[in-house]
């Protein structure tokens, strides 16, 4: 069984909104709902655990349980850091679950392809993360804003989610991190910390994390483009049909 855990218990400080950014509207619905609906379209995933801020658990559970089209979902309370929120989610995973996917609630533009690629790699090797190669030159900066060095760009990738793991591996990695007082910015780093290999699979540049207001503008544009593409597809079908009719007429007059 595959369970997806969605850390959604952040404060969204960088967004600067007076509420948790995962409830901000993106196009026609909240960011969190986009995320959950995308995963609900993925048949390989069986159930969800949404990790909400302690005072948001009850209202979020009420809304999610009343919405059609969302997979069976538990809502549990998060912690003060993303890592602690994921840990709280992990503690609620069913004993029947053998693979866990962790996906930021704040990444609403995730595609089923990327989710499926991560799952396939977890089945093969136990630990897989979606990521994309960096497109800018990255420099390490030291004191007084001085450049220390320029790592080879071909070795640098930006980590995204979903990050998927065999359940026991991820639970072990979180337990070890707690014992060692190790705090990572993603789940893969905890698995790396216990020395288990993690494989990267190609993510999607559109799978952005909504962090600041500009990201919302970009996400709206991507969703708008999808709507435009649909209109374009309809127009091309109409044009093709018109051409077919025209060709048929020409053919008839030639006979
Ligand atoms: N204590 C926390 C912190 C973050 N998250 C979640 O982890 C994801 C990625 O975190 P980030 O983008 O950093 O979100 P925030 O912590 O909300 O943002 P900020 O740092 O700007 O406050 C988000 O879906 C967020 O809700 C969480 O569940 N628990
Ligand atoms: C897990 C993550 O999405 C990988 O990019 C990210 O590290 C979490 O968010 P943060 O902004 O780094 O807290």
UniProtKB/TrEMBL annotation:
Its UniProt entry gives the catalysed reaction(s) as: 2-C-methyl-D-erythritol 4-phosphate + CTP + H(+) = 4-CDP-2-C-methyl-D-erythritol + diphosphate
- Recorded metabolic or biological pathway in which this protein acts: Isoprenoid biosynthesis; isopentenyl diphosphate biosynthesis via DXP pathway; isopentenyl diphosphate from 1-deoxy-D-xylulose 5-phosphate: step 2/6
Q: Does the keyword Transferase apply?
A: yes
Say if the entry is tagged with keyword Cytoplasm: no
Q: Which residues form a coiled coil?
A: none
Instruction: Name one molecular function that GO assigns to this entry.
Output: 2-C-methyl-D-erythritol 4-phosphate cytidylyltransferase activity
User: What Enzyme Commission number(s) does the record list for this chain?
Assistant: 2.7.7.60
> Which CDD domains does the record match to this protein?
CDP-ME_synthetase
State a single Pfam family of this protein. IspD
In this chain's numbering, which residues are marked as the site (Transition state stabilizer)? 14, 21
> At which residues is there a site annotated Positions MEP for the nucleophilic attack?
153, 209
GO BP term, pick one = isopentenyl diphosphate biosynthetic process, methylerythritol 4-phosphate pathway
Q: What class of enzyme is it?
A: transferase
Which keywords appear in this protein's UniProt record, sorted alphabetically? Isoprene biosynthesis, Nucleotidyltransferase, Transferase
Q: Any idea what job this protein has?
A: Catalyzes the formation of 4-diphosphocytidyl-2-C-methyl-D-erythritol from CTP and 2-C-methyl-D-erythritol 4-phosphate (MEP).
Q: Which family does it belong to?
A: Belongs to the IspD/TarI cytidylyltransferase family. IspD subfamily.
Q: Please identify the protein, giving its name as recorded.
A: 2-C-methyl-D-erythritol 4-phosphate cytidylyltransferase
- Organism the protein comes from: Pectinatus cerevisiiphilus
Q: What is the lineage of its organism?
A: Bacteria, Bacillati, Bacillota, Negativicutes, Selenomonadales
Q: Which gene encodes it?
A: ispD
């Amino acid at each position: 069984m595959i369970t997806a855990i969605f850390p959604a218990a952040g404060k969204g400080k960088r967004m600067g909104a007076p509420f948790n950014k995962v409830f901000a509207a993106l196009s026609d619905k909240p960011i969190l709902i986009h995320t959950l609906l995308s995963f609900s379209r993925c048949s390989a995933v069986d159930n969800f655990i949404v990790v909400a801020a302690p005072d948001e658990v009850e209202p979020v559970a009420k809304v999610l349980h009343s919405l059609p089209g969302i997979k069976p979902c538990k809502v549990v309370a998060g912690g003060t850091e993303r890592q602690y929120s994921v840990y709280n989610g992990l503690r609620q995973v069913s004993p029947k679950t053998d693979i866990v996917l962790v996906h930021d609630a704040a990444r609403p533009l995730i595609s089923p392809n990327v989710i499926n690629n991560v799952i396939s790699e977890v089945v093969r090797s136990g630990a897989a993360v979606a990521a994309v190669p960096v497109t800018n030159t990255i420099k390490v900066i030291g004191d007084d804003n001085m450049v220390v060095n320029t790592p080879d760009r071909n070795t640098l990738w930006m980590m995204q989610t979903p990050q998927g793991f065999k359940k026991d591996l991820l639970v072990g990695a979180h337990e070890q991190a707690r014992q060692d007082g190790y705090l990572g910015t993603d789940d893969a780093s905890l698995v790396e910390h216990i020395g288990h290999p993690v494989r990267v699979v190609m993510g999607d540049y559109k799978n952005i994390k909504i962090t600041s207001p500009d990201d919302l503008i970009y996400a709206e544009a991507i969703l708008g483009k999808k709507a435009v593409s649909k209109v374009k597809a309809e127009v091309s079908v109409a044009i093709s049909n018109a051409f077919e009719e025209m060709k048929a007429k020409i053919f008839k007059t030639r006979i």
